[in-house]
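Final report, results section. Input specification for complex C-07:
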Amino acid sequence: MTNRRSEEVWISGTEEPDWLVAGTDEGEQKLKEHEEGGRLTEQTGTRIVDDVLYEGDEDPQERMIINMGPQHPSTHGVLRLQIELEGEIVRRVKPIIGYLHTGMEKTAETLTFMQGPTNVTRMDYLAPMHNELCFSLAVEQLLGVEIPPRAQAIRILLTELNRVSSHLVALATNGMDVGALSMMLYGFRERELILAFFEKTTGLRMNHNFIRPGGVAADLPPGWEVDVQNILDELPPKMAEYDDLLKANPIWLGRTRDVGIITAAECLAYSITGPTLRATGLAHDLRKSAPYSGIEQYDFDVVTGTRGDSYDRYRVKVHEMEQSLKIVKQVLESMPTGDYKTDDRKVTPPPRARIDESMEALIHHFKIYTEGFKVPEGEAYVAIESPRGELGCYIVSDGGSKPLRMHTRAPSFANLQALPILLSDSLMADAVASLASLDPVLGDVDR
Amino acid sequence: MADEPEVVEEPEESVVEPDRLLPADPTLLALIESFEDAEYLVSAGQDIVILPKESVRTFAEAAKSAGFEMAADVTATDYLGKKRVRFEVVISLLSVQHNVRLRVRVPVDAEDPTLDSITPVYPGANFFEREVYDMFGITFDGHPDMTRILMPDDWQGHPLRKDFSTGSVPVQFKEANQI
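Structure output:
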């Protein structure tokens, strides 16, 4: 038993209990070894030669475990990283999650399919539209209903605008973590443009519950063209400003170039999708490979990087915003007329005017809103390209009006598996830059 | 001479095969054909394979070499009272190069809720399998770190099981014992 205080000032009768000493003994520290040699501990990360300050004789006493988070400003929420440090160098890292777990998948089993979007929209709070779209598409896959072209176009308009706003926050927080505070202010400033449009359209800045099985909740508000055109006019010059600020900024380059490198093969093996995968040079975008909601009619490019480092991930996000605005422009020019939700009567309640004149319509309306509509027995997995990667929704229906099982394949959850690769053998200061470029949303991770 | 028994066996297989629905996609066909115990079906336009849990690891290895680079998702469903076999582990495989998706459903008995982990084949399944363990109590043999991921380490029970009640929780400190 070792006393942490010197003998001279030790007061008898105040010996610390054994459990406390064991808990505070600052001996050799190491993350727990895994039983079979540790597949996890191998961490096939790319060794960055510049970052290895010294090699060879590893003194176990030099190793130290620190906990970064869960209340750390640059962990983007409540992510906790258990980091094994050797001096300034991160040797191993283990993400510990679950601090924001609210059991949304369990909650979904108690909500009808009609109430479902209000639950899933709270998962990835930076891209709520994508969550709603993914859930709605999965339900529609089971229902087998046709969605009118106008509803599809509205969905694409909203999700692509949401992608821009989400990437703006990604750039803003990435800038903040690396020290480019102006970028933080600009990113959040421009996001307001889009959120104001969302508020006008859906009534809320986030958690919209606007995209629902069968279509969207309401038609676009009068004068929406002006608002969207305003966004299209205002954003590109602002994005040019960001490029002036960051693109060739030597400090930004120094903090992000060749930091947090991941290869395409590692991304595929570790189920990492989205801008992180595309920054490695692999043009995998579900909007192209598995088009949804009629996005195949619009002309856009898949943005890829070359090196797979933090800088490429930043560039991919910037160019994806441009491509998304390009899609929004095409939607604005070609918005079809017609219904904004399906006319399938099993899914859509009767219009308000019919309720006054028809008893059956009133009963039908009541039953749809109390019981919910029934979804045929079966299961479907639908994946869409969210700003963070493949967002999947797996729904099992037993023929009732509530899902037997609703599972969300959260992109941030899978992408966190990249952290050991990104951070291993890099400097502690770069850990923050790598983490920020990965852009995890903890609401999406923990659900 | 040694080839002759094989020639005799082949017609027997071709008699069995017409009963079996097989996918049109060549990538899927090559993969599924080699697994006799894999039952192929299409649900809501999506390719599904129902696989006994003994052959999960070998199937994953075959799928990886057939071009499925990514285990996009691993999850489970609790069919308590709906099906004879209570759990079903659902693995979504994605082939980026062939642009094919395949869902593998593995029935898992409630008496012995274990199956082979696919994490050694697909490292990306790591978090997903931990989530399934956390939420359903299904353990994966050969997983490097079979611990809870979302719930606290000392949590009792597995929340997404159908018999895990979401019922009321006693309010803490309501009747704190006066010490």
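Chain A has a mean pLDDT of 82. The longest strand of chain A covers residues 378-386. This concludes the modelling results for the funded period.
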